[in-house]
Write a structure and sequence with these properties.
InterPro entries: SAM, SAM/pointed_sf, Ubox_domain, WD-SAM-U-box, WD40/YVTN_repeat-like_dom_sf, WD40_PAC1, WD40_repeat_dom_sf, WD40_rpt. With 451 residues, the chain is α+β, with helices and mostly antiparallel strands. Helices cover 15% and strands 37% of the residues.
């Protein structure tokens, strides 16, 4: 379930983007401003709004440490703001002075990419704010960009409909032609990849949300899923900090979180973002508002993806119907049988407490329950639940400046003894700030309950 926490009415034009840091929410708009809110109570900071762009602000993103905010605009600039003072730290003019439609920071805070309306890309050294390399795709507009979790490659999407993977030398590693008919609108890497592949979500004017697997060695892309839950162009998508949830916003005025729920908004939904530290989603709309939604504990997936122990009584009823046991639905509802109770059923309880007289029906039900247990059983701990340093199940997962999650004690020890380098990339960590990964901790807790 979700609940609407609050609605922010401060912008005077369409909200184009929203982004969370550990403690702040940033939104940007066609009204040329950015607004910054404290996520503890969604009060606006004293230095907000930020007014430094001459035209519409299309995109904004925080540095992993949360100390800086980057924004880009039709005025052909990308601006770096201090989140301590609200002052401008740097202004980077895009090569060719074309309107900048998208900007993205690497998880290690070393690089930044900006993409423009003329199809050009600029790769910047973020610490020095110096231009490093440029690239281009002819006859299109760059509208989407996302760095991989390792910070070594990035994906771009364009109005032509292609997804293109680049390395830091601006070499094209792969081009997925016609990934979305009529154009890509957004793309985002899942925060933590599998051992040999990355996961990427993309959405477009074709009203589809697609999930891709990208081989880390060959860079070939394979489409894994095509999600058709929205009936109009999908304008934005974002993963939760643990990669377990995916949210998208559409012209059909809905926000969808896969595979949980669909909530109704009032005008076209143009932007969406997950908080990395709390169960919150921010969505921006053409009605000039930003809605803050709270995810209730346990809604990280639909029934088919939830642990059986998390099933509600309604989930159990649906399962009975699917398995051809619909005659038991009323009896199970009358006895309040949820997922936990379902797994604990025995021949004795079926006969003496639920009063199911048919031996054949009791045996069929127990076989189906055993199949459920078998399907739920895991041959090993999911890789994303393991600390990359210790390879043990995490108890207190935290997100480091490189964008990866670690066991707090392990990464603190690593930082104290390894000269502040990233365990995953070997690049320097620009900050030792560690952010609790509450979403991942909850997911681990649910997994442990069922095993």
């Amino acid at each position: 379930m979700t609940s609407l926490l609050c609605t922010l009415h401060d912008h005077l034009d369409d909200v184009n983007w929203c982004a969370f840091s550990a403690k702040l929410l940033a939104t940007c708009s066609g009204d040329k401003t950015l607004r910054i809110y404290n996520t503890s109570d969604f009060s606006e900071l004293s230095f907000s709004p930020l007014s430094g762009h001459g035209y519409s602000v299309h995109c904004c993103c925080f540095s992993p440490c949360g100390q800086f905010l980057v924004s880009c605009s039709t005025d052909a600039t990308t601006v770096v703001w201090s989140m301590v003072t609200g002052e401008i730290e740097a202004v980077m003019e895009h090569p060719g002075r074309s309107p900048v439609r998208i900007c993205a920071l690497s998880p290690d805070s070393i690089h930044m990419v900006s993409g423009a309306s003329d199809g050009t890309l600029a790769l910047w050294d973020f610490p020095s704010k110096q231009l490093r390399r440029t690239g281009a795709v002819n006859d299109t507009t760059m509208v989407a960009c996302s760095f991989s979790p390792c910070s070594q490659v990035f994906m771009t999407g364009s109005t032509y409909g292609d997804l293109r993977l680049w390395d830091l030398n601006m070499n094209q590693l792969h081009a997925e032609k016609n990934a979305h008919d009529l154009g890509v609108t957004c793309c985002t890497f899942a925060p933590s990849g599998q051992v040999v592949q990355f996961r990427l979500a993309s959405c477009g004017q074709d009203s589809l949300l697609k999930i891709w697997a990208i081989n880390k060695f060959t860079y070939k892309m394979q489409r894994l899923h095509t999600l058709t839950g929205q009936s109009a162009p999908v304008l934005s998508c974002a993963y939760s900090s643990d990669g377990q949830l995916l949210v998208s916003g559409s012209v059909d005025k809905t926000v969808a979180v896969y595979d949980v729920f669909t909530v109704i908004c009032f005008r076209y939904v143009t932007a969406c973002s997950f908080s990395p530290t709390s169960p919150l989603i921010a969505t921006g709309s053409m009605d000039k508002t930003v809605n803050i939604w709270r995810l209730e504990d346990g809604c990280s997936a639909g029934r088919l993806k939830l642990l059986v122990t998390d099933w509600s009584e309604e989930d159990v009823s649906e399962w009975l119907v699917e398995e051809g046991l619909e005659r038991l639905v009323d009896k199970f509802r009358a006895n309040n049988i949820d997922g936990t109770e379902l797994l604990s059923l025995t021949k004795e309880t079926l006969a003496s407490e639920l009063l199911i007289e048919s031996v054949g029906l009791r045996n069929k039900l127990l076989r189906k329950v055993e199949e459920l247990k078998s399907e739920s059983a895991c041959s090993g701990i999911p890789d994303e639940f393991l600390c990359p340093i210790t390879r043990e199940l995490m108890k207190e997962p935290v997100i480091a400046a490189d964008g990866y999650s670690y066991e707090r004690e392990a990464i603190e020890s690593w930082i104290n003894t390894k000269n502040r380098s990233s365990p995953m990339t070997n690049l320097p960590l620009l900050t030792t700030l560690l952010t609790p990964n509450h979403t991942l901790k909850m997911a681990i807790g649910r997994w442990k309950t069922s095993h």
